[in-house]
Amino acid sequence: MKTLKFLIEKEFKQMFRNPLIANLIIFFPTMVLLVFPWAITFEVNNIRVDVVDHGKGSYSKRLTDKVEASPYFILNDTPPDYETAMQAMERGEIDMIVEIPTTFDRDIVKQQSSRVGLAVNSVNGSVGLLGSNYMTQIVNDLSRELASELLHKTSHAQMKAPPSLPRLTIEQRYRFNPQMDYKLFMIPGFFVIILTILCGILPALNIVLEKENGTIHQINVTPVHKAWFILAKLIPYWTIGLIAFIIAIFVAYLIYGLWPAGSIFTVLFSGIVFIISVSGMGIIISNYSETLQQAAFLVIFFILIIILLSGMFTPISSMPIWAQAIAAINPFTYLTSALRMIYLNGSSLADVSTNLLMLALFSLLLNGWAVLSYKKRG
Amino acid sequence: MIVVENLHKTYSTGLGRKGKKGKDNGNGKGDGDRNSNRNGDVKALNGVTFRVNKGEIHGIIGPDGAGKSTLFRILTSLLLPDEGPSKVTVAGYDVVRDFREIRQIIGYMPGRFSLYQDLTVEENLNFFATLFNTTVKENYHVIKDIYGQIEPFKDRRAGALSGGMKQKLALSCALVHRPTVLFLDEPTTGVDPVSRQEFWEILDRLSEQGITILVSTAYMDEANRCTRISLMQAGRFMATDTPKGITESYDELLWSVEGERMPALLAELRAHPDVKTAFAFGDNHHVTVKERLSVDALREYLTGKGFNEVRVTPIEPTVEDAFMKASMEVLNGNE
Fold first, then answer.
1. What would you measure as the largest C-alpha separation in chain A, in angstroms?
2. Which tens digit of pLDDT belongs to each residue from A350-377?
3. In 3-state terms, what secondary structure has residue A323?
4. Helix (H, G, I), strand (E, B) or coil at A1
């Protein structure tokens, strides 16, 4: 026990002598939460549009104005013909062309309907899909407005009761994140990334650095038990990981007003269970690498898989079966979903117990593997 | 104190992970002159047998890649020997079975500086003392000679020390728990001549205190400072004896040849039918000759070949001569 204390003391000394690590604890969670939630978003804004208005009537002018007024679109130009607009799209200046036919105004008055042409550059699929959805909404809006106006006029003129047409509308209600704010959905995911880097990757690199410097041999020829050595490596990173986690929770509250709907202690407890499993993963990586270069490569390889297949960015339910299987054995999946449940749904400890049990299982497996694969001699 | 019988170690160099380069303390030693089979397995140690008595300074003399570091890493319990009918014990403890006991009583100073560069001199020393449940104060008498020299810099970070001071710190850390056996793997490589001299004086004093020292070196001139030495080449011990015994058992006619155009002279010597071997030794050539050749005859022969002012003198063999002879025999034996 005394040896462990000295080993930990040494780790902390080294840690605080390294200005990078000391800064990392405060700045890393703050930066991640300040920058990423804004940049990593699936809301599509600022779609650049050219409107080719062949009709040049008052209704087609209203449609153009509506496009310009929409927060989703930027009206780039109103070229005279489709060809000019197409060239602009080929040059990458615009994402979408709206073509209003010559007969637009007349059709609306006569038949109360008209057709609008949409051409979307769907190289970026989500811009294509969402852009055309938004545009459809605008066109529908306009047609509804026009319809009611026209109906009004006719009814006034003929003094007849308007024919009451049955109308069905679907009213969607979004629960738990009523504004559909993507940032609130993502932030629990960023907590997981912060914990992974501080408690999984940093200790792994630290151990490999000892291998590269040869200092690990100097420890290995002493009677120090290997479990003490590993534990002494982990405890300091567990500590800074927890501190950074708490800082991140407060930053999320101060900037985004996001506070767990459930208990803060459930959040912290889930975090701790996850920290233990992810640090086991770090030790395994360090056991199988002899140099920092090898370790860095392994880390990048696993982190990419683990983050992309965890439901952090994309829903697991829409993944192919094999990817779902990977997500099911990924500790990230369980903490991300647990944190989202606690934060947004207000879940209690009992609600997330399945997730926590899975994380505890990973902790056992990964750390067992880590201890077995760490050898003091070759 | 150290008993090694028929020790073998084979590295499989299949894929880097368990490979030689990775595990060997990162010092990237070549293994070009080791026996290797078709699978790429490298025999780093091939039946090493020797014995070190208490209080001796035993030198392992051999070139880079001879297997010195592998031997040290097995003796310090960092590496497992090949399975087989071998016996390797340190202070009576088996290196495989009793590795815990061994780690209590040995001090190891690897060839490369491997202390914490971001800790100070004092912190490094205290740290290694605490790992053995002791304190610097308790064993200060053991390290006083060495640590005394770097104590004025005790608040300096180890990474900022000069080469000679780093080496003294490393030795202090290896000694701070008062080991009974000290393993020094090429401790003087890359150290200036004055510091080397000092270092050997320190080893003498440690040996007087009853500490058994196994030291490896590629410098032949350091061999004479050891109680006994072993000549090592290609994973084998070619001879083990006192330095005096090694040179006395040298049974060749040995001459030194000096003159102008030394490289051409060496080639000419090797072409002579009665010259057995010829090697460059600093500013002269050492040649061994057949008995029918005389000093004058060789001088005249060389003068006839256009080498003026050639001096040929019979000399006493050194450890290096003995090493060259033995290693030629091993290499010829392999062919």
1. 103
2. 999 999 999 999 999 998 898 888 775 5
3. helix
4. coil
| Range name among A270-279, B97-106, B189-198 with the lowest pLDDT average | B189-198
Domains of chain B: 2-247 (3.40.50.300), 251-316 (3.30.70.2070)
**What residue type is assigned to position A84 of the chain?**
T
**Is B242 near chain A, with CB under 8 Å?**
no
pLDDT in tens, A295-317: 999 999 988 888 888 888 778 88
Distance CA A25, CA A248 (A): 10
- CB distance from B133 to chain A under 8 Å? yes
Query: Closest to B103 (Cβ–Cβ): which among A3, A212, A222?
Result: A222
The whole-number pLDDT of residue B216 equals 93
Q: Supply the ipTM of this predicted assembly.
A: 0.78
Residue of B78, B100, B125 to mutate, interface with A, max A Cβ within 10 Å: B78
Residue type, B261: R
Across the interface, whether the CB atoms of A221 and B99 are under 8 A apart is answered no
Q: How far is A121 from chain B (nearest CA, A)?
A: 49
| pLDDT confidence tier of residue B156, bands split at 50, 70 and 90 | very high
As a whole number of angstroms, the distance between CA B211 and CA B198 comes to 18
Residues 6+ apart with CB under 8 A from B38: none
